């Protein structure tokens, strides 16, 4: 169970994971050692799953984002197809979904030519795929992995 202080610590870390323990302690009204203890507990419990740097996609040559809906032959094959997609570095998100399509992917590529190559050469080698339908992102208005941390009610 997360208390109000845990939730505040999580919100601070989501905004900037490089925030010093002393600064977090000041913001939540604890001593730094107590904050460190709480963070370690949250890591051990799997609430905090890791720390990453957010990169500018264009700066690393991956300016094109697309969503790809995938249909498979058999529903029984879906999880194997999902595992194959999860291995590809260009695939940022893999979701098993309800509806006509079985899988929804978020991918990054350099440009439309690179996306086409990804679909043909990488996705084309995955057995069990019946069809793919791609939606190219023209502009991203909001893109975040931050979860809304609400105070306990």
Per-chain topology:
Blueprint: H1 4-15, H2 21-28, H3 32-44, E1 64-72, H4 78-86, E2 91-96, E3 103-109, H5 112-122, E4 129-136
Antiparallel strand pairs: 1-3, 1-4, 2-3
Helix pairs in contact: 2-3
Could you explain the architecture of this structure?
The protein is α+β, with helices and mostly antiparallel strands. The chain has 5 helices and 4 strands; from the N terminus they run αααβαββαβ. The chain has helices at residues 4-15, 21-28, 32-44, 78-86, 112-122, and strands at residues 64-72, 91-96, 103-109, 129-136. Strands 2-3-1-4 form a 4-stranded antiparallel sheet.
Spatial arrangement of strands, main beta sheet:
2-3-1-4
CATH architecture heading of the largest domain:
2-Layer Sandwich
What proportion strand?
A: 15-25%
Oligomeric organization of the protein chains: single chain
Count every helix, treating DSSP H or I runs of 4 or more residues as helices: 5
Question: H/E series, N to C?
Answer: HHHEHEEHE
CATH topology of the largest domain: Alpha-Beta Plaits
Mind telling me the CATH superfamily name of the largest domain? Lrp/AsnC effector binding domain/regulation of amino acid metabolism (RAM) domain
The first-level CATH class of the largest domain is given as Alpha Beta
The shape is elongated
Roughly how many Å apart are the termini? 13 Å
Helix content: 25-40%
């Amino acid at each position: 169970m997360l208390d109000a202080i845990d939730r505040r610590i999580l919100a601070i870390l989501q905004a900037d994971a490089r925030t010093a323990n002393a600064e977090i302690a000041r913001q939540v009204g604890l001593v730094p050692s107590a904050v460190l203890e709480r963070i370690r507990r949250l890591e051990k419990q799997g609430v905090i799953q890791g720390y990453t740097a957010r990169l500018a996609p264009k700066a690393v040559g991956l300016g094109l984002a697309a969503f790809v809906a995938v249909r498979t032959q058999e529903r029984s094959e879906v999880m194997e197809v999902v595992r194959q997609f999860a291995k590809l570095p260009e695939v940022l998100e893999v979701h098993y979904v309800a509806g006509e399509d079985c899988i929804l992917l978020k991918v990054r590529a350099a440009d439309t030519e690179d996306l086409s190559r990804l679909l043909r050469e990488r996705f084309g080698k995955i057995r069990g795929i019946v069809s793919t339908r791609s939606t190219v992102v023209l502009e991203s208005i909001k893109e975040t992995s931050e979860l809304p941390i609400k105070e306990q009610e």
